[in-house]
């Protein structure tokens, strides 16, 4: 199975994913951003873009990479990755479903002011124009489709540990 942790840049996906991995038996983290990094290293040849998700190969490569890793090692993949474009999410989730891979989709959510404050005060990365550029697209996706597609975890006042525990408890809860 896949535990997909969505949300905008700077909300805590990577930190939370590492903690979720510690709580779920036989799990490992697969960062789909690294698939984008592979594509970014192809030069010249790919069209100019501000986001590797716009390249058509990225989405099926994410699906195929996840499928092949699961076929090889089994277990659970915890995938922290922002996907804010609805057709892109539909393509990825449909591709995973075609391979019979169940996906537990979570969105880490904080309001716009909280996100901007965290981005401006990030002790590791410092202020980031890139992260700021995705606050409004995230809020729009949250209003229009994203929160309907996932379990929303409000991290405005929650620690990454609390968010990870909530995700793990949800995944491990008996179905029914």
UniProtKB/TrEMBL annotation:
Source organism (scientific name): Gryllotalpicola daejeonensis
Q: What is this protein called?
A: AAA family ATPase
Its lineage reads: Bacteria, Bacillati, Actinomycetota, Actinomycetes, Micrococcales
Query: InterPro entries, alphabetically?
Result: P-loop_NTPase
